[in-house]
Specification:
Number of strands: 11
CATH superfamily: Class I glutamine amidotransferase (GATase) domain
Largest sheet: 7 strands, mixed
CATH architecture: 3-Layer(aba) Sandwich
Distance between the termini: 11 Å
CATH class: Alpha Beta
Strand content: 25-35%
Order of helices and strands: EHEEEEEHHEHEEEEH
Shape: globular
Strand order of the largest sheet: 5-2-1-6-7-11-10
Length: about 180
């Protein structure tokens, strides 16, 4: 059975992390759809390269059963999230992560993704790898010094340099 992943793409997104996930999924015949965490499908990488996603995050609400996993591709996510916390796309992102977590589906992310996961009740108490500067900011998940952590359905890596290894673990989990 083909697995399918919803990939959240913030604006701007870290291209290294995003493309690590997408390449691993493509090379392992795992279907994926990209969702911009923005008002429009067009986003940019941190280096300014324009990308067109398949959908916007609001279009994923109510469709979690169509996917086996959710991957959060980080970038300047947390400063942008903080600036735009009340925007519908950020509220949609939290709803989507909650829906995946409530259904115990695989959730993955690197860098500051754990800061978002820290707001999801179904993930409270889970161990996470995250950017060292973000460690003191989490309250409900358990920050570690590890490069990568898998804690049941939650897969995290400390930064984009570990995204390829994280993507490989996600692929392995989806293929089991």
């Amino acid at each position: 059975m083909n697995k399918k992943v919803a990939v959240m793409v913030v604006n701007p997104v870290n291209g290294l992390g995003l493309f690590s996930y997408l390449e691993h999924f493509f090379e392992n015949n795992i279907q994926f759809k990209t969702f911009a965490v923005a008002e429009r499908k067009t986003v940019k990488t941190n280096s300014g390269i324009k990308l067109e996603t398949d959908y916007v995050v609001n279009e994923l609400i109510g469709k979690t059963d169509e996917f086996d996993a959710l991957v959060f591709a980080c970038g300047n996510a947390m400063p942008k999230f903080a600036e735009n916390v009340n925007q519908s796309y950020n509220q949609a992102l939290l709803k989507v992560i909650n829906a995946f977590a409530d259904k115990r589906k695989l959730i993955a992310g690197h860098c500051a993704a754990a800061l978002l996961f820290d707001n999801i009740k179904a993930l409270y108490g889970k161990r996470v790898a995250l950017h060292p500067l973000a460690k003191k900011l989490v309250q409900n998940v358990v920050a570690t010094d590890k490069d990568i952590i898998t804690d049941n359905n939650l897969f995290t890596a400390k930064d984009e340099n570990e995204a390829a290894r994280l993507a490989s673990l996600v692929v392995q989990a989806l293929n089991n």
